[in-house]
Every structure is written in structure tokens, then in C-alpha cells.
């Protein structure tokens, strides 16, 4: 009976380690960035692993009142592409940060622990 209690305590300790490591890993995500372009490089957006836009470059040719709608479309396209591109980097970072703490359970998505 006491053996099970020890196992439980060990499990609880591992969960605490995992939570601490996840928190640290999430904080480090701000240092991971990914950029994407749209309009053949006229718009460039950089996002970080916390899914925040951290950089935005717009070619001077696009800054004309008549091109406002096109500029908006290009911004949306570049932001969406950058967000898509950062996803695998986030997953990889979280997996590396929690390596050895959890058994690798197929189908378990660590990304869901972040929401």
C-alpha cells in the first residue's frame, strides 16, 4: 500500500516539474520568430512563438491611398502565413522543453496544454 503512495508522490513531483518546465518554455517562445511575405515581398510580417506580431515591413510603393484595400489584403495574407509557419516551431520547442518528463504518448498534443 505504501508503494502506491510513493508512486503518487513521485507522479505529483513530476507534474510540478512539468508545469514549471512548461511555464519556462512558454516564456522562451517569445524568442522564437518566423517571418512571412505576401505580394512578392511587398509586405513582410514577423511573429513570435507567443503568436504576437513583432515586426511589420511595408514597401513604400504600397503606401498610397488608392492601394489601401490591397495593402490590407496583403497584411492579412502575410500575418496568416507567418502564424501558420510558427506552429511547428512552437510544437518542437515545447517537446524539447518537456523531454523526459512525460512518456511520449502518441496523439497527446502538448500544444493543447498551453491554451
What does this structure look like?
The chain is of the alpha+beta class. The chain has a single domain, classed as 2-Layer Sandwich (Ybab, Chain: A). It has two helices and three strands. It has a three-stranded antiparallel β-sheet. The longest helix has 30 residues, at 68-97. The chain is rod-shaped and about 70 Å long. The protein starts with a helix and ends in an 18-residue tail after the last helix.
Summarize the structure.
This protein has 115 residues and is an alpha+beta fold. The chain has helices at residues 2-28, 68-97, and strands at 33-38, 43-48, 53-58.
Question: Main attributes?
Answer:
115 residues, DNA binding, 50% helix, cytoplasm, Ybab, Chain: A, alpha+beta, 3 strands, DNA-binding, 3-stranded antiparallel beta sheet
List the helices and strands and how they pair.
Blueprint: H1 2-28, E1 33-38, E2 43-48, E3 53-58, H2 68-97
Antiparallel strand pairs: 1-2, 2-3
What's the domain count? 1
Please provide the ordered H/E string of secondary-structure elements.
Answer: HEEEH
Q: Work out the number of β strands.
A: 3
CATH architecture field: 2-Layer Sandwich
Helices, by number, come to: 2
Please report which band the strand proportion falls in: under 5%, 5-15%, 15-25%, 25-35%, 35-45% or over 45%: 15-25%
CA-atom Rg in angstroms: 21 Å
Give the CATH topology. Ybab, Chain: A
CATH superfamily: Nucleoid-associated protein YbaB-like domain
Distance from N terminus to C terminus (CA atoms, Å) equals: 37 Å
The share of residues in helices is 40-55%
Average pLDDT works out at 84
Gross morphology is rod-shaped
What summary fits the major beta sheet?
3 strands, antiparallel
Coiled coil: 8-35
Protein name: Nucleoid-associated protein GBK04_11830
Subunit structure: Homodimer.
Organism: Salmonirosea aquatica
